[in-house]
Amino acid sequence: MDEITLTLPRDRSFHGIANLVLGGLATRLSVTIESLEDLQTGMESLLARDEDAGRVTVSVRVRPDALETSIGPFGARVRDELAGDGEDRVGLRRILETVMDRVEVGEREGGHWVHLTKMLSERKEPKG
Prior knowledge:
This protein is an alpha+beta fold.
């Protein structure tokens, strides 16, 4: 399984780098535009949760049928926001569950990590 890991400053001006890498990977894998947009929406929704200074790590693993992304570490605020279920308002959990196939929160390496999975059953034909 291939994996790409980026560690970036939490400053918003660096978020585009993560999107650029994700876009390049999606192009290489012939991911549909719709799936790429879903992946970028999920990642941006999390990266926009600037909790403090420091760094955020984005890891993308390529499986034959899916892209798995781990983003973190985050503090308790993101964990609590993702724990809220059954709410009628449009919050982080609802956004992520709408665009991703699986959303999980785990604890490791200095905080909470969000694991996103996007199935890749739909792929466009690669340009030859």
